[in-house]
Amino acid sequence: MRVKLISPYIFSLLLVFLLVGCNSDEPYANPVSPDAIPTIWHTGTVTPAGGTFDFADIGINIIFPAGAIPPAETFAFSVRGFPSDIPMVPLGSVMIRLGTFEMTGDGTVFLEPVAVRFLIAENRGQGTTSRGYKLNDSYYWQEYGNAPIMADGLHALLTINDPGIYGAFEAVGLRVEATVSQQMGTVPLSVGLRAVVTGGNPPYSALWFFGDDTDPESGINISHLYVNPGDYDATVTVTDSAGGTAIDWVHITCYSQSGPPAF
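The chain above was modelled as a monomer; its predicted structure follows.
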């Protein structure tokens, strides 16, 4: 028999900031973006010959290739990590903000892509799927391109075409955990079932199958009455707004009025 309770993983998801689909009054929880403190500003000036600027104390390395700056011009810039007072994450799918940086200058559009390696707030490990975003004029994060995590697990890499505020974000995959208020008892047994949903693209819908030949039922939080003794698997399928799905189940044992069999 599988014993299924809410796992420590679910309890560790502390940030509650959106509502789930079927029951609009029921919140869901997602991982918290790591804390980060804004760094000091650093400045530099680059010519059409290009150059590398390594601001090791704030974890930012910038490579201007030759020809990135228009001929006979110079580009004076300032840069810092983890700028404050910006939106935490993009709208839409659930994401964790890994790291951000801000570059200011005279509005130059680079003629060649400029590579920026910047510090993230915690070690994510090489191979973490991370996307780059830029804060647009309306102060919304706009997807910008890939921002792979470097081999040290502490920096992301993004190529940019102009100054601005940029960030690396990790998408949180859709996950559901089925929980039950009572896993065993005598019939008739009324149980409460809940789908604990994280990640994906909210809002969500949930469909439950009870394993007892009754009709399925929709809802994040529902109740069900088992009237016959037996072992049942209550299965929930959650679908997010992008069409992604996740499935989990919980085992329920129903006894006759005489109680469970002796072993």
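The radius of gyration is 25 Å.
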